[in-house]
Design a protein that fits this description.
The chain is of the alpha/beta class. It is built from 9 helices and 7 strands, in the order βαβαβαβααβαβαααβ. It has one domain: Rossmann fold, CATH 3.40.50. Strands 3-2-1-4-5-6-7 form a 7-stranded parallel β-sheet, with helices on both faces.
Amino acid sequence: MGQRRLEGKVAIITGGAGGIGEATCERLAKAGAAVVVADINIESARKIADGICAGGDRAVAVQFDLLDTVSINDLVSVTMAEFGQIDVLHNNAVYNPPEAFNADGGFLEMDSTVWDNIFAGNVRAGMELVRSAAPHMIARGKGGAIINSSSGASGHGQLTMSAYGASKGALNSMTHYMATQFAPYKIRCNTMILPAVLTKGLEALFTEEQIEQFVSHTLMKEATRPADIAAVVEFLASDDAKMISGQLWKI
């Protein structure tokens, strides 16, 4: 990671105050990007942004709500006001609060409001973010990178999490359409299909024995951690990935 291969770029990371988001913000900043830490938890976002700035890099915190279109447009406006350009959009934030998670069951029991909110947070918000940010990338004329975060739940069925899994499947499909439509402007769009990532919050929920059992079922026999995801984001955001678009990366 020694080289600053994102020097001169500006990156928006939604969900920037979460475990994956924090690791990604810090990694992209060390790679030279000016980082916008976008999160509904503004206090945590400010701490991360302040830490990045204290290390000599550039960052700003912006409060952001996936279900609020005004908030989405404001995020892009603040980014342009602060840094004057947008080169990278990482749709990392996910709508899966406890009340929605607990209510996201099978189709016969599904409340339509739960379904609509999950799709609004995980699909429509990503679309609106791209629709708001992409015109600035196009006007800049130097291409750009859109990186979405999906889930392994998008590729198989189970008894619960019907809306969540289906919403991530829709995000996967949306990736192909965005890649096709933005290709003339050299704007790339790729999606990471994530496993369960061992964040501090997730780690606190499981015993060591449970974590060991989970790891034993992975191909690499190693837990995926936030830093591992951040490394992939840095690569996809960089010019090293200039020929990669429309791809679903299974992590």
